[in-house]
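Z., the sequence and structure:
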Amino acid sequence: MKKKNLISVVGPTGIGKTRLAIDLAKHFNTEIVSCDSRQFFREMKIGTASPSEEELAEAPHHFIGNLSVEEYYSIGQYEEDALKKLNELFENHETVILVGGSMMYEKAVIEGLHDLPEADENNQKKLQEILENEGMNKLQELVKELDPEYFAVVDLHNHRRLLRAIDVIWQTNQKYSELIAVSQDSRDFNVIRIGIEAPREELYDRINRRVDIMMEKGLLEEAKSLEKFKNLTALNTVGYSELFKYFDGEWDLDFAVSEIKKNSRRYAKRQLTWYRKADDIHYLRLGYSQQDFDDLIKYINEQFKK
């Protein structure tokens, strides 16, 4: 039986993945599965640049706004849910689109996560104490020292990711980046990875502009409504944690907004580092023309035949 096809649209934050995914979904008359871990949460629409109502109406999307920030959702659970959804979609479609810039979540779908040990209670306790007494910087230093490769791509503001990586390294005496690189099992679908690229200055300009647009759309009010959840993992993320510092009186608003821009650019840089290591991504340039899109479709169809 002919294998089904998954087209995975990847790239840094703010590069235009949503638009390309919709264009591809319309061309192949199919549906979109999101692997953007921040867009799972329905209360965080503005700060995560979730697809608009108009965009959602252009093609069916899955895993957008499907959770509340109060729900805990692990990457392992996502892997299971996403594969189940893909199997359902493949019953009616030859091709499905995957899109998102959460590198580990894309990896979970296309390769599978390695079986990692459960959290060790003593390690967790010890790490929690480090976090409380010495702060996030100490955890970042530990990850840098133990696993420079993972440090280069991890979201440094996500303390849960840092805690998990250190715990696993302590338990296994192996680098976390190596453990998660081991593919669990092969998938029974073909994967074609499509990226969008732009000169770095242009990407950074887009990111800065996007933050300004988010503020105009009401990011401040959205963050204010979520302030009571600021200690939850979902909110410990760029665009929200900076505004919580403004609400606490630590920073003024202009500085908080400039920090959102800076941290968004840093995150984009980490994403670029991750994708540069891959040799299986076919790139389209930012602001692609109809001809570029037609050439991309031709490339994808050739890959299908292979």
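Residues 253-276 form the longest helix (24 residues). The chain has two domains: 4-114+184-208+278-305, 121-181.

Let me know what you think.
H.
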